[in-house]
Amino acid sequence: MNAVLNPDPYADLRRRMVQKQIVARGVRDQRVLAAFERVPRHDFVAPYRAAEAYEDHPIIIGENQTISQPYMVASMLEHCAIRPTDVILEVGTGSGYQTALLAELAAEVFSIERFASLAESAQRILAHLNYANVVVSTGDGSLGLPSAAPFDVILVAAAAPSIPEPLVAQLREGGRLVLPVGAENEQFLSVVRKVNGVPYSERLYGCKFVPLIGAHGIPH
Ligand code: SAH
């Protein structure tokens, strides 16, 4: 029997993650699933944690923050209903993993992170993986990114005490804002849709994220 060399030793783990954690829990968006099959999640965690990267839980990254659980990211991305022409704002770059998935799904991605160390590390990994449609910056994402607005989709990866008004203002007509809203211990994933200039919000399900720290988040 011939040994077949696999150029990506994590490809099988990744395929299994998609089937057992994401498809099995009901995510059906084929573009989202294909993006998960492509993005090397192990590149976004510390090398000694690479073997853990495809497990069913969040993992600590720098600055006491976490790379979100794969299923949580998949579910949020499905609710974003991204089209290939969309311009995206991501608040809370963290490791940059979700940023890479967004770059696979959309035309242009602006990502903002409050810790410069995380923003720089994410930018470096994304450049190494040849994502040319991503701009990562450091700042308070609860204020949005007025210079690049409006956005078709705004995705927030940290929990806001209430829906930040600047993010609603920077949403394009027909756009979607997906974010966890609530207190530290009880949050709901929420979707805000802008229809004829009016924001309509819907609560989806309970979740737990690190806090959104900033002017329209939790004061620090
Ligand atoms: N999707 C990311 C999750 C990162 S955790 C991943 O998969 O790696 C959420 C991130 O939001 C943290 O890195 C935290 O520092 C960042 N954050 C919190 N408040 C913020 C704010 N006001 N502006 C920008 N980033 C913020």
Verbal overview:
This protein is an alpha/beta fold. 27% of the residues lie in helices and 26% in strands. It contains six helices and nine strands, in the order H-H-E-E-H-E-H-E-H-E-E-H-E-E-E. The strands form two sheets. Strands 5-4-3-6-7-8-9 form a seven-stranded mixed sheet. A two-stranded antiparallel sheet has the order 1-2. Strand 4 (108-113), helix 5 (116-128) and strand 5 form a beta-alpha-beta unit. The chain is globular and about 55 Å long. The structure holds S-adenosyl-L-homocysteine. Residues 65-68, 91-92, 94-95, 97-98, 112-115, 118, 140-142, 157-158, 210, 212-214, 217 line the site of S-adenosyl-L-homocysteine.
Name the descriptors.
alpha/beta; globular; 220 residues; two-stranded antiparallel ribbon; binds S-adenosyl-L-homocysteine
Query: What's the overall geometry?
Result: globular
Largest beta sheet: strand ordering: 5-4-3-6-7-8-9
Q: Main sheet?
A: 7 strands, mixed
Radius of gyration computed on alpha carbons: 17 Å
Mean pLDDT: 95
**Fraction in helix:** 25-40%
- Oligomeric status of the shown chains? single chain
Number of helices: 6
Please state roughly what percent of the residues sit in beta strands, choosing from under 5%, 5-15%, 15-25%, 25-35%, 35-45% or over 45%: 25-35%
Low-confidence stretches: none
Distance between the termini: 61 Å
Ligand inventory: S-adenosyl-L-homocysteine
What is the N-to-C order of secondary-structure elements (H for helix, E for strand)?
HHEEHEHEHEEHEEE
Which structural class should the secondary elements be placed in? alpha/beta
DSSP strand tally: 9
